[in-house]
């Protein structure tokens, strides 16, 4: 089988690509494991780190461009991971860009998948940002979507499209609502949640990190290793196991920023945590405060999605991977 | 003030137009009643019945055409009623047409409203079809949207857009989830719910009507008179009264098809009900069965939306209006 990963040159896309190359197989629609022959990556720029493998084809292009996506999906493309997105802070700052990439891009991809008529399995990376506003203390699988950010609205629209394209038999879709992924390597990005990696990563690298939210802010987080395993698990689930509800709240860890910092101090000492400066940014606080900090992901557990352990392990995993 | 009504040449649009002409005023953003200077109607074809009034301007055009909508919205257009839509049965049969009119058309309208920068009040006619699947016996204001028809998905996307455009300050939007409107005059249409008018209207006009669903099918219905009053009430609500939740389940009447037929018999006798032929249509049954038949519209009641009486009155109102 062939695999398509949009946003495949990003951090998560590269991690998923490496994982898929290593495991070498995914479950097919008939329930049997099938070897991965090729992974096609569509992203704005190529990832040089992935260039050498003969099983990888990189297409530099825009997910809003129909011709690009049609060239990337053929009838052997039975697995599609849709990770390409404009992140939360950027979607809030540039409304039209967010609508274009997050809504039109998703629709263009789904139409490209539909055009071949072979009903590929599509894993859509949605987000806990589809929840917002007057939320219960713990979000349940039955909690209504009331997003209070453009990013969350755009992801909710993507979920509705995935659901209806699936119901119509155009694709076999599944939307996974990703918790905040931390600790991400590299540089800060325009996601409002960027600090959730920064306050761990920068101090461990001897750099100062500015935390723009209050210590009491509660977040629903997942490690990079576990989120990749969840994407694969979400793909490998049978259509029957999901039924007509195609959206799943992924398991995560509910931690306050204070608890994240305490874990950093336990693992790397006070000299690390002293590099965190506290400087509230109302623009980021407003977005992050609308997101839920705690879930009861009963359905994901029943479906067998993997879960993280303690946050100390998040810190150690980042240190080990540097 | 100026008023824009998309789909204004349709049955509901004409009824709303007549009501607005008669009342002559709507509430402005400052809470005071303001005289209606002009009503602009955008629809595929003009309504000859409305042509004579000098307060009405009709534009024959497509809601997916940006230039048409931009010509219809000026900075004096402070009230917009968005009724134009591809109905449920047609949206299910022609997926791309439904996406185009119901999603792209709504977005094009909202962008035209946003372009002027004057934050008009927009009343979006959504539908109880945003609910579906495994529903509780009585739908509450907190029940999640899980539409199981393309029409319902497209209306749910419209609601998300109305909500986010409002939050961003582009418009002052409100989405009203309309029950099935009955008894509509005229001919059957491509709505899966068309029979809910047909089984009353045709027998009263001495014609045979085919009922495509089971007698036990429960529906959430509203009369044409009341839905027009709800559209006006939804417009006149202050932005503060709605808060950040911009979607309202309208009040309705929960009746089975059997109860509707019994009302027809009470009002018009057995000779009317004998004109109903029972012939199940799986395509219609499948859509109608996903829609909820009963609500507890607590929020709409608290907000003061008007309500219907008994279904016998629906029958009498149609007879009086012929």
Please write the string of helix (H) and strand (E) elements of chain A: EHEEEEHEHHEHEEHEEHHEEHHEHHH
Helix content of chain A: 40-55%
H/I helix tally of chain A: 13
Tell me the fraction of residues in β-strands of chain A, as a range: 15-25%
Mean pLDDT score of chain A: 96
CATH architecture of the domain at 2-179 and 224-249 in chain A: 3-Layer(aba) Sandwich
Strand order in space, largest sheet of chain A: 5-4-1-6-7-8-12
What is the general shape of chain A? globular
- Quaternary state of the chains: homodimer
Biggest sheet of chain A, in brief? 7 strands, parallel
Q: Could you give me the name of the CATH homologous superfamily of the domain at 2-179 and 224-249 in chain A?
A: NAD(P)-binding Rossmann-like Domain
The structural class of chain A is alpha/beta
- Rg of chain A: 19 Å
Low-pLDDT residue intervals, each spanning 5 or more residues of chain A: none
Please report the distance between the alpha carbons of the first and last residues of chain A. 32 Å
Q: Examine the coordinates and then state which fold CATH places here, giving the name of the CATH topology of the domain at 2-179 and 224-249 in chain A.
A: Rossmann fold
Look at the structure and give the CATH class of the domain at 2-179 and 224-249 in chain A.
Alpha Beta
Q: Give the largest interface.
A: A-B, 24 and 24 residues
């Amino acid at each position: 089988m062939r695999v398509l990963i949009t946003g495949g040159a990003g951090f998560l896309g590269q991690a998923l690509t490496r994982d898929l190359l290593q495991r070498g197989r995914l479950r097919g629609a008939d329930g049997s494991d099938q070897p991965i022959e090729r992974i096609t990556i569509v992203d704005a720029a190529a990832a040089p780190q992935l260039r050498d493998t003969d099983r990888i084809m990189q297409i530099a292009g825009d997910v809003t461009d129909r011709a690009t996506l049609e060239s990337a999906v053929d009838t052997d493309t039975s697995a599609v991971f849709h990770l390409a997105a404009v992140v939360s802070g950027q979607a809030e700052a540039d409304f039209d860009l967010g609508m274009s990439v997050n809504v039109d891009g998703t629709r263009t991809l789904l139409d490209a998948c539909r055009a071949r008529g072979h009903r590929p399995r599509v894993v859509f990376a949605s987000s806990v940002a589809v929840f917002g506003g007057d939320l219960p203390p713990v979000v349940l699988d039955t909690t209504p979507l009331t997003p209070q950010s453009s990013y969350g609205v755009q992801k909710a629209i993507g979920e509705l499209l995935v659901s209806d394209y699936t119901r119509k038999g155009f694709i076999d879709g599944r939307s996974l609502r990703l918790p905040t992924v931390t600790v991400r390597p590299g540089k800060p990005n325009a996601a409002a949640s960027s600090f959730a990696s920064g306050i761990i990563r920068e101090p461990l690298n001897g750099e100062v990190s500015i935390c723009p939210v209050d210590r009491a802010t509660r977040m629903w987080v997942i490690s990079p290793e576990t989120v990749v395993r969840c994407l694969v698990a979400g793909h490998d689930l049978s259509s029957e196991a999901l039924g007509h509800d195609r959206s799943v709240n992924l398991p995560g860890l509910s931690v306050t920023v204070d608890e994240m910092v305490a874990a950093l101090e336990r693992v790397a000492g006070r000299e690390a945590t002293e590099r965190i400066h506290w400087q509230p940014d109302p623009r980021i606080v407003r977005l992050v405060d609308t997101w839920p900090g705690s879930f009861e992901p009963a359905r994901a557990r029943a479906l067998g999605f993997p879960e993280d352990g303690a946050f100390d392990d998040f810190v150690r995993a980042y240190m080990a991977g540097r």
